[in-house]
Design goal:
Order of helices and strands: HEEEHEEEEEEEE
Number of helices: 2
Distance between the termini: 35 Å
Number of strands: 11
Shape: globular
Strand content: 25-35%
Strand order of the largest sheet: 2-3-4-5-6-7-8-11
Structural class: mainly beta
Amino acid sequence: MIPDSCQTLLLGTLLVLACHPHPAPAPDRCGPAPASAVTMSPAHYGELVGDFTLVQVTTNRSDPVPPLVRVIHLYANDSLHRHQYEVPQVGRSWGERPVAGWVEAPGTSFWGDSPVRSRNLEKPGIQWTAGRLRIGQVDTMDGIGDDINVLAISADGFWGTWSRDWGMAILVDTISSQVIPPEEGYFCAVRTM
């Protein structure tokens, strides 16, 4: 017979383990999409809905950059938010916005957590716009964020390339006076639920 206090501890531990999201894939395993993946197209928007661990690997730096690992939540936009910007408007990137969401557990980010964590239906932290997922600011004259270009998708997640958008800002190396290009690389997003 197990004492009540031990049963409670054991049950609590099992619940935490059962509800804990899958661990993030190692960056070296975040390469090409599996053979089961298909090319991303509008027919697959619904497969972007869910919770994912997103690993962004930077490839255009001479010094190693640790991968950016974030937990993201994506949902299907209702018809109002999906179609409200299909007609071109000044100050808006136009087109269908079928998927939106937020960053649940951000990794370190150069612009802070507030825009990417937004759950506001009018300005969510993540939106599908202009043929890619945009993490960060959309529809601002100097918006910053990450553009996630989904190239392949399967029931397990999605894969592709990413690039950072600094808006109007540029970085300049103070020693060489060379302009430093925004980060870019590849990513994988593994479904956690």
